[in-house]
Each structure stands twice: as C-alpha cells, then as structure tokens.
C-alpha cells in the first residue's frame, strides 16, 4: 500500500468532516434535551408544567424556586383578608395561590449535607488515593499486584448489592444517617478508582525527579510534597472530579441509609410534593441548583481535566 | 572535596548480579570515568555511591567515613542525571536554588549563589525562563548548576551528555573538563562513550558484566589493555587480534605466526602450550615488502589525514591506520610488520594480557 493512501485514511475530506461534526452536534443536542427540559420546568408554573401538549413557550415564573425553599399552608380567603400587605415578592406570589409561607423547607439543609458529604469523601478519597498510588508506584510492596486487584474488587459488583449488610452494620455501630457514615461509605467506593487513576499518573513521573530531590538534601516526604505532588496536579484534579461526580450523584445508598440529619439532595428532591401530586417546577428548580456545584467545580478544574483526560499522553 | 573509596562492593537484583566485587579509589579532585556498555553495572555503582541504591555487600567510604548505609541526603554529593531531571514546575532560578532551600540558607544568599553559578555556566540570561523550553545544552548547564551551587563533596554524573547531539556533545566535553579544572571537585562520570572517557578522565575504570576489567589513566588503558575486552572496547577502530598457538618461555621476545617471526615485548612470565592472541593497534602496523607476514587489501576508508585499510590475512582480518598519502590499492597483496615494543599478547581462554616488558614501563611511569 502506498503512503498516500495511508494519509487519506488518516485525514478525512471536507464533506466527511462536516458530516461527522454534524452527527456529533446533533447527538450532543439530543443528550442535552432532558437537562434543558428540567431547567425550563423549574421556571414554569405547576399548571404549565403538566399541561398537554407540553408548553415550550410559556410565561416564566419563580414559583418553583419559592416552593423549593419554603413550606406553605393553604388558608381561607377570610384569613387572608386579615393579613397585612405582603412584604416581599415571594410572599405575594405565595398569597396569590391562597397560601402563606409557614417556614423554610429542608432543601437548604439537604443541599448542605450533599456538599459536606460529597466534598468530604472526595477529599478523603483523593488524599488516601494519592498516598497509596505513590506507594504502589514507587516502593517494592509484597503482593502489590494482588493488593491492587483486591482494591479494585470493591467495584466489581453494583454497590447496592451490599446495601443490606451495610445498612445493618451501620445501624449497629450508629453510623446510620450520619455525615461521617456517608463520607466513609463513599470514600470506600471511590478510593479504588482514585488509587488506580492516580497510580497511572505517578507512574508517568520519572523517578529521577525525586531522586534529584533526595540527593539535594530533602527527605522522601519533602521530595514527595515539593516535587511529585506539583506534577500530579493534573491527575489529582481529574480524579477529584470523578470522585465528586460519583459521591454527588449517588442515590441508592443515600436513600437507604439517610432519612433525616444526613440526608443528601438526591433522595430528597423527588420527594417534594405539592398540592395534588409532585411539584414538578420545584423539582426542576432543585435539580438545576443541584447540578451547579459539579458544574462549577469542573469548570474550575477544566484546564487540568482536559490534560488529565488524555492520561498517558501527558508528558514531554 | 573528597576521596571516594569503594571496597568489595556487590549488588544483586534477585538472581541477577549487577556489580561483582568492585574495588577502586577516586582521589581528591580526580575526574574518574566508569566506562562500559549498557547493563555493565556502571550506573548501579554510581547510584550506590549516591545512596540511591543500597549495596548487597561491601563498603563505600567518603573521606574515610563509612557512608554505605547513609541516606542520599546525608552524603553531600551532587548527582547529574542522564535526563537532567530538571523540576518542570520551577523556572531555571528555582531549579538551581532548590538544593540550597533545604539547607536553610537565607534568600539573599541563595540569590547571590545562584547568580554566581549561572555566570560560571554562562546561563545568567535564562535564569527566569521555564525549564521546559530550554535547548539541550542549556538544560545540561542548568542541571550542572544545580549540582555546583551546593559546593558538594563530590559530583556524580550519569551519562549526562547521552541525549545531546554530537556537535553539542563535543562542546560540553570541553566545558565539563574546563569546569572540573576550575573547581577541582572529585567527579565520578559514567558513560558508554570511549571518546568522552578518553577526553575527560584522569582515570578510567572499564566495566563489563559487573566486573571492573581495568582501572587506570586513559593512556595506560589504551597502551596496555589488561584484557582482550578492554583492548576491543577502547580505540576506533579497536585493537586487532591475531590468533596463534604456542608455548612461550619467560624472557621470550619472538613469536611465530604462520611462517612469519614477530618481535614482541620481552615476556615476564612463562606460558605453556595454549591458544594465544596477538593484539595490535591499527597505528602500529606498517607496510613492509620484506616481511613474511602478508595479507590482501580488501577495503580502504579515507579519513583525511589518515586512512583505515582492511587487510585479510591467514590468521584473521586486520584494520590498519596508515598516513593518507600512502598508496594502497584494493586487491593488492602487501607485507606487514608491527611496532614490536607496543604489542600485547593475550591468553585466549581467560582474555588476560600476559605480563611483558610493556608493563615494565607502566611500573616506571604509571606508578
């Protein structure tokens, strides 16, 4: 085969490229539809959200967001007439539905729980993963290959398969419905991913850098912190995002093991019930807000992530 | 500055023995080169001196102190790596200053010493550049700067010129030697390149399969190779070998190869009937029509001032170095004679050089 044929295989023509690009864009748009639908549902009124045929053009309303953050009670028109005029725009909005605000909802609290548990377990997974990955990469550890395989075994079944034993165990030791319990659980699941991902990144860093630092008078730990860690930044960022996404979105364990104080947002959001069924605008609003932290975190680490995603092809 | 002594040093990795019983002393201020093919144990020896590898047995003494099991950071030795190992997340200035930071030296003093070192290496204009964009020669100089700035007891260098292109390499060989002459620090330098070794070394150790085959000044290693391996490894083209079988008396100074009688340096030992090899450097071969030792010219290679002529004889092929103006035609049969006082005789079985008058001069001059 001549070399020109080989080249034409590698570089597609203009029309083919345009077609390929169009397919990718259309596919991306299709996958975006549920997200977009959830986002616009958050700005509909409850009536609009369940109207048939579905409304694409509608008058936007913040009712979903108000309902997400408040609990409300229905009042008689006589009682409503006795109230002083509404002080805020959301008071007014709620009263227009013949209701008054009874107090804040649990959403803020649940959202905070998600943040504490998600970021807590991400930090712990990446911290433990970094140390373990360095050790596996650099030291001669007896049975290292078996240990690495064993670490991975926690991911060989769906986590929910062990949900009942964990539920019973947690109840016995008093970890049910606690932040600590959820952080430990998510860390357990994530640390294997973290060790494997990070080991790949450490393997890529030539040993000479640490050896140079050792000879320059630094201890092994100083060499690790000052020379290895800065070069692992990309890998750590990529790993942190993967860990956060898992911990943030986890639903099954959260549903089973948390009910009150430590409940995260995923099991809470679908339970938002309005009058006469689920309050879809409030759910849409909750999901939209729920997506934000991961989005922000990913954008912040985007520079590292883009390089990290290419894994092996990072250096030199 | 320091003296480095290596005493019966051994290193095994599982079943593989990388270094077998090494002994040598690098004297204060000496430029010492370990020369050998890859996998011969030279880098392992260097890493043991640095403290990056622990020996299986034996001792390493630095200025008389046993440092065999000291941490690398407690030896006060600088190491220049083959790939330089410049920290990619620091600029040139921070790379050079990095070893000083952990010594607790003040910032102004670090600044002063980094700049002084940079001037010495002529890299003061790139101090604030990132290391990633530097050319090979500059990376090399930064790596050297990081070693020099500490004023360590000794420098260890692991094929530091291996990744540079030839042009740069010649320049750096000169610069390195000049630098050594200026600062006079004990240096251990590892390379597989005999030209680098010959150009820079005060003393060379030629290593093969974990064993030091010969240890001495470049001139001695070239003129009086201790083994056939050294004779073959050093020199370009390497020493020629002519096989013969004989028993030689002590004091003998003649051997017969075929029907030719060849003069050799007077033997200082007796040899029973065995397979031997005559070692001849290319430049010690002369054209001589009267000689009974004859061969056919099968190739010539013109090198400007000299030419390398390949001659096929009944006892093996020879490469001879003649002046370029001597006319030699391919296919021609020529007579050859040798510079008798410069020849070596080896025992073919062990590869060891026989003791002869050649080594007397060594005792007088090399001692």
TrEMBL record, chain A:
Domain of life according to the entry: Bacteria
Domain ABC transmembrane type-1: 111-301
Chief localisation class: membrane
One Pfam family hit: BPD_transp_1
CDD domains membership: TM_PBP2
Chain ranges passing through the membrane: 18-40, 115-135, 147-168, 180-202, 223-248, 280-301
Protein localization: Cell membrane
Keyword entries, A-Z: Cell membrane, Membrane, Transmembrane, Transmembrane helix, Transport
Topology relative to the membrane: Multi-pass membrane protein
CC annotations in GO: plasma membrane
Entry keyword annotation includes Aminoacyl-tRNA synthetase: no
Keyword Cell membrane: yes
Classification via InterPro entries: BP-dep_ABC_trans_perm, MetI-like, MetI-like_sf
GO terms of biological process kind: transmembrane transport
Family: Belongs to the binding-protein-dependent transport system permease family.
Record's protein name: Carbohydrate ABC transporter permease
Species per Swiss-Prot/TrEMBL record: Stappia albiluteola
From TrEMBL, chain B:
Domain ABC transporter: 4-234
Keyword Nucleotide-binding: yes
PROSITE patterns: ABC_TRANSPORTER_1, ABC_TRANSPORTER_2
Any Gene Ontology CC annotation: ATP-binding cassette (ABC) transporter complex, substrate-binding subunit-containing
Keyword Methyltransferase on entry: no
Keywords, comma-separated and alphabetical: ATP-binding, Cell membrane, Membrane, Nucleotide-binding, Translocase, Transport
Pfam families assigned: ABC_tran, TOBE_2
Major site of localization recorded for this protein: membrane
Subcellular location: Cell inner membrane
Family assignment from sequence similarity: Belongs to the ABC transporter superfamily.
PANTHER family associated with the record: MALTODEXTRIN IMPORT ATP-BINDING PROTEIN MSMX (PTHR43875), TREHALOSE IMPORT ATP-BINDING PROTEIN SUGC (PTHR43875:SF15)
Descriptive protein name: ABC transporter ATP-binding protein
Organism the protein comes from: Stappia albiluteola
Taxonomic placement: Bacteria, Pseudomonadati, Pseudomonadota, Alphaproteobacteria, Hyphomicrobiales
């Amino acid at each position: 085969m001549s070399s020109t044929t080989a080249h034409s295989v590698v570089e597609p023509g203009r029309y083919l490229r345009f077609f390929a690009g169009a397919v990718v864009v259309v596919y991306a748009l299709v996958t975006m539809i549920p997200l977009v639908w959830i986002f616009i549902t958050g700005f509909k009124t409850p009536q609009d959200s369940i109207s048939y045929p579905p409304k694409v053009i509608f008058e936007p309303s913040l009712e979903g967001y108000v309902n997400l953050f408040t609990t409300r009670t229905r009042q008689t028109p006589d009682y409503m007439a006795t109230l002083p005029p509404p002080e805020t725009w959301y008071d007014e909005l709620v009263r227009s539905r013949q209701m008054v605000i009874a107090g804040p909802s649990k959403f803020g609290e649940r959202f905070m729980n998600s943040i504490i548990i998600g970021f807590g377990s991400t930090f712990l997974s990446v911290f433990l993963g970094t140390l373990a990955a360095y050790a596996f990469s650099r030291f001669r550890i007896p049975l290292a290959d078996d240990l690495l395989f064993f670490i991975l075994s926690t991911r060989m079944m769906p986590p929910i398969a062990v949900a009942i034993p964990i539920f019973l165990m947690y109840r016995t030791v008093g970890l049910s419905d606690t932040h600590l319990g959820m952080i430990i659980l998510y860390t357990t699941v994530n640390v294997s991913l973290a060790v494997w991902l990070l080991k790949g990144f450490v393997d890529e860093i030539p040993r000479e850098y640490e050896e140079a630092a050792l000879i320059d008078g630094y201890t092994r730990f100083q060499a690790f912190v000052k020379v290895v860690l800065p070069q692992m930044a990309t890998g750590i960022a990529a790993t942190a995002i993967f860990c956060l996404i898992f911990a943030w979105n986890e639903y099954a364990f959260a549903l089973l093991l948390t009910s009150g104080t430590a409940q995260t947002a995923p099991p809470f959001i679908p339970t938002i019930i309005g009058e006469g069924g689920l309050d879809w605008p409030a759910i849409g609003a909750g999901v939209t807000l729920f997506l934000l932290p991961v989005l922000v975190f990913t954008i912040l680490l985007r520079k590292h992530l883009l390089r990290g995603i290419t894994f092996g092809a990072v250096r030199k | 500055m320091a003296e480095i002594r290596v005493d019966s040093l051994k290193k095994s990795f599982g079943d593989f023995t990388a270094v077998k019983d090494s002994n040598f002393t690098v004297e204060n201020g000496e430029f010492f080169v370990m020369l050998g093919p890859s996998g011969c144990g030279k880098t392992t020896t260097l890493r043991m001196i640095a403290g990056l590898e622990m020996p299986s047995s034996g001792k390493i003494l630095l200025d008389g102190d046993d440092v065999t099991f000291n941490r690398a950071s407690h030896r006060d030795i600088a190491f220049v790596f083959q790939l330089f190992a410049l920290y990619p997340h620091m600029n040139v200035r921070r790379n050079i200053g990095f070893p000083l930071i952990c010594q607790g030296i003040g910032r102004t003093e670090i600044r002063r010493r980094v700049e002084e070192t940079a001037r010495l290496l002529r890299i003061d204009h790139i101090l604030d550049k990132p290391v990633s964009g530097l050319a090979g020669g500059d990376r090399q100089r930064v790596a050297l700067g990081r070693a020099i700035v500490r004023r360590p007891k000794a420098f260890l260098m692991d094929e530091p010129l291996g990744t540079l292109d030839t042009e740069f390499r010649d320049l750096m060989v000169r610069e390195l030697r000049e630098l050594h002459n200026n600062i006079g620090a004990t240096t251990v330098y590892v390379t597989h390149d005999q030209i680098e070794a010959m150009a820079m070394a005060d003393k060379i150790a030629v290593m093969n399969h974990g064993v030091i085959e010969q240890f001495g000044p470049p001139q001695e290693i070239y003129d009086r190779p201790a083994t056939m391996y050294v004779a073959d490894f050093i020199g370009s083209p390497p020493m020629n070998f002519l096989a013969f079988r004989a028993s030689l008396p002590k004091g003998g100074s003649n051997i017969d190869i075929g029907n030719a009688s060849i003069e050799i340096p007077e033997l200082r030992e007796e040899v029973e009937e065995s397979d031997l090899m005559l070692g001849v450097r290319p430049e010690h071969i002369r054209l001589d029509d009267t000689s009974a030792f004859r061969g056919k010219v099968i190739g010539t290679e013109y090198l400007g001032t000299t030419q390398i002529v390949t001659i096929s004889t009944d006892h093996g092929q020879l490469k001879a170095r003649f002046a370029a103006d001597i006319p030699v035609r391919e296919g021609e049969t020529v007579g050859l004679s040798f510079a008798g006082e410069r020849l070596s005789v080896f025992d073919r079985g062990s590869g060891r050089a026989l003791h002869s008058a050649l080594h007397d001069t060594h005792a007088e001059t090399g001692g």
